[in-house]
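Late entry, evening session. Most of the bench is empty. Finally got around to the prediction I had been postponing all week. Sequence below, unchanged from the version circulated by S.P.
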Amino acid sequence: MTPSTRPYQWPAFDVLTAEHYLEAAELGAAEQREELQLIVSDSATPSFANTFQALERSGQTLRRAMMTYFSVLSAHGTEPIRAIQSQMSAINSAQDDEIYLNETLYSRLQGVDCSELDSEDARLAEQTLKNFELSGAGLDEADKQKLKELNAQLSELSSQFGNRVLENQNAHAVHFDAVEELAGLNDQAIDSAAQAAKQAGHASGYLLPLVSPSQQPLLESLSSSESRRKVFTASITRGSEENPTINLAAQMASARAERARLLGFTNHAETVLAQATAPSTAAVEQRLAELTAAATLNARKEAAVLAKVAGHELKSWDWKYYSNQVLRDQYAVDSEQLRDYFELDRVLIDGVFATATKLFGITFTERFDLPTYHEQVRVFEVFDADGTPLALYTGDYLARDTKKGGAWMTSLRDAASFLDELPIVTNTLNISAPAEGEPVLLSLDETNTLFHEFGHALHGMFSNGKYASLAGTAVPRDFVEFPSQVNEMWVLDEQVIAGYALHHTTGEKLDSATITKIRDAALWGQGFATTEYLAASVLDWAWHTISAGTVIDDPLKFEQQVLVDAGFDTELIPPRYRTGYFQHIFANGYSAGYYSYIWSEVLDADTVQWFEENGGLMRENGNRFREELLSRGNTRDPLESYELFRGRTARVEPLLRRRGLVNAE
């Protein structure tokens, strides 16, 4: 309830309980309501300082409580923490209504003369007024009341959806009795499965936990088709029957459509694009349709190759296994054997951190004096090139049953000079925990994910502005993935991989011939990867372009029809996320925004080309990228930042080449 006196205002995780979070949120909401009343009752002429800046400064107790609570909820959602989620979400939603539906406050903001403001202050005023407009500030009282009811309903449904997805992910873990059923897995994976079975209360056997996406990483290695079928079926049926989430998703889509109607939009997607870089729903639909046609063509070609390798009709649960076999046989790349070269600490320290040091001059020192919400969390202090403190970075890398699936970055504090704050950024992953005493070994995909999430962390740490609401990753949804995608380029960079890809027992470097083969193999599987991603994007778009009054009685039928109409063969390649476990769009703020990954990738691929043209891993390149893009946050139009960095608008050809979608010249 007061700012922490620890370094960087580090939260008091050693004493915080669920009750503390709830108490602080309730008090913080009341405090902010008093602060809002002071703003609107101020007899002085409305000014930028006494209105816009006063609003930006308000609600700090509530902000601290919410930033900390929701970070912990996702990463270590114990039963007490999850039990208060609905209340915390309701407080958050109600407080947004208190602010954005306050007619007097909105009128006062509109009355401020902003004509002489400098660029960052002008940006704050512009974005604040837009937030009010898109939140319904201009509605009459009857419609404002309807909007409040819809916001409360959506907050509750979202909480229920997130909780049920985690419950289903744990409940659908697949138990095997005999070790023979796990043929193909390495000893570490088998030991981990035996340990997971014991922890889950099984007297014997082996338990394979699930991760978020439809296709599970272990499907690459399990040699028994029946074992693969069991794991795959458990994955894609989550949320459809027992403890269903699909009905919650349909209700949320309908409520979002109704909210969009109140706000004057045709559908929810239009409300999202009002704060995005994509110009229109038609532009997004056209991009998705164009890419789908090319991707599914590539996927069909890949399927023909895999069926020939398998010697029988290909099933969806066979795809990853035989794809890995093609990598082994045609490119001499074995995904399972590569794990021996990707030990977590080496990837983190000698890969991710070392790259950031070469590019930006920043350094990292691990700290052991700050209490964390779980013993697996690691904390590093980050110093700028001149030695000044820059940020705290925390890594929470291992999977556990209290953690949501997937990987993400969040902020516990922002870079905001107006609040005298330095950033605390977190990276959270779900790497399978090894048996006791064994090293944590990553797949190539997990290594890529670690670099990706650290790209988000850099965006947060390098933010250099006045206002928290414009800081770091507070950019349009279809731009936010861009910096993280760029950071993936260093995974296989010859200067980088030579430093971290060492065999965990022998210390032998991953040989250059294998690295070359990995690069050569990069186009293999792009048909599948692009298709499963696009299917999820199309599904998201379909749910959020329904019009008000639309009721989806059979969500599974709706899902299937949407995908078939778009040209996807879901029997062979299901979407990366099906409706029942699509947390991005029903629990994590990406509604009508999953397209943003490939939209951002246009910028990413064009930027990678710029690095390659200008010498790659060099401080001057890193400094330019930091100065024009990473440090800017939303203090100016992100596309303006991109054009100032690149010297022109982005071109799509580098992305098409990367994805193998055209023979771009």
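Two things to note before I forget:
The chain is about 55% helix and 5% strand.
Residues 363 and 383 are 5 Å apart (CA to CA).
Will write this up properly tomorrow.
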